[in-house]
Amino acid sequence: MKRIALTALISRIANNIILTLSPVIAKINYHFPLGSLGIIEAIVLVSIIISMLSINLIYSRELLLLSFILLSVSLILLNMHNVSFFFLSLILAGTLFGVIIPSMTTIASSIADDYHSNARLLKMYTFGLSIGAVISALLEAISLGNPIFLLMAISALNLYNAYFYYLNFRNKAKKSMISFRTIFNKRLWIANMISLPYDIPIAFINVYLALLAHYYYHVSISLGFLYFFVFLLVASLSRYLIYRLELEESKMRIFSAVMTILGSILLMVNNPFFLLFGIIFLGFPHGLLLTLSSLVIAREFKDEKDKNLANSINLLFHYAVFIITPLIIGLFINISIFYGILAFVMLSIGSSLLLMIKNNYKA
Fold it and tell me: How far apart are the first and last CA of the chain?
């Protein structure tokens, strides 16, 4: 179980480096305008979506191994001080994440032979994701001036994931993964709805937090990464509580929606202390909602191919929101930073109210 958490930790560090460090590299090294940074994340996420809808459908042990190896290469390319290599790294990483992320989630929730054990493994896996995000934020804050050593270290650690998931890959079926019964399954789309107040804040935070910390809240970019560290630390605490305690899922969903609304509103105040409290409030739903969404899928789908397809659709939903949200916010930031934050607040409140209204659905 600890090895599941370790692999999730390594994967999340690699993922966060691509999604949160690349906009900063684009701004500092290549002088991208602030309102256009959503395009950087969009390149990665579009590559993930295309990969999930094509390469990922093969679902083979050899493909997964190759994806892990090439991901290590893409991390090295990210900071080669060459704009062509930079964009190549984004596209390559996105394509590989489109195979790696759904496969890891599927395998982590399929190792055992019963739902209760797999649910425990899945909770430990999501807890590992949170710890990895916490560590990555701290490492990015420390290594912002010269991230090459961080990128090389994660590239090496990523090879352990290749080894672990190659050994634990069990599916041997060759038939196509496409199943319209899975795609249009009601509980899959309930899982997507549960994750929406998770998706919108993290889409905003990944792209804009470190830079808005400087341009709106008037603190350093490095301190902006430390705010991100606090956000992820709170998320890790909430995922640990899910793992240790048997909490009622419907009450956790309502709590998450309320905290999302309160945290988003606090970010509107041009003060670093309000930013801190807003980030803390948003950390709780970030930790809770992804786990709650994943548990719905693990409970509904037993066949590993169907589960992998369901996880892929769920991730496609995440990434569609991750693409759209920063682009919308970027349009308003071009008017003023305050309007960009206001657009984020309205999106967060809308998604939270939807979750509260639909909370009586049996998931």
Answer: 26
Q: Tell me how crowded residue 30 is: count the other CB atoms within 10 A of its CB.
A: 12
Handedness of CA 64, 66, 68, 74 (dihedral sign): negative
**DSSP state letters, 279-334:** HHHHHHHHHHHHHHHHHHHHHH--SHHHHHHHHHHHHHHHHHHHHHHHHHHHHHHT
Residue pointed to by tokens 């930031």 = 333
Band of pLDDT at residue 116, cut at 50, 70 and 90: confident
* pLDDT tens-digit map of 170-194: 765 555 556 778 888 888 999 999 9
Contact by Cβ (8 Å): 334, 43: no
Q: What's this model's pTM, rounded to 2 decimal places?
A: 0.76
Query: Which is nearest to 140 in space by CA: 13, 313, 41, 248?
Result: 13
Which of helix, strand or coil describes residue 54?
A: coil
- Closest listed residue to residue 107, CA positions, set 296, 299, 287, 298: 298
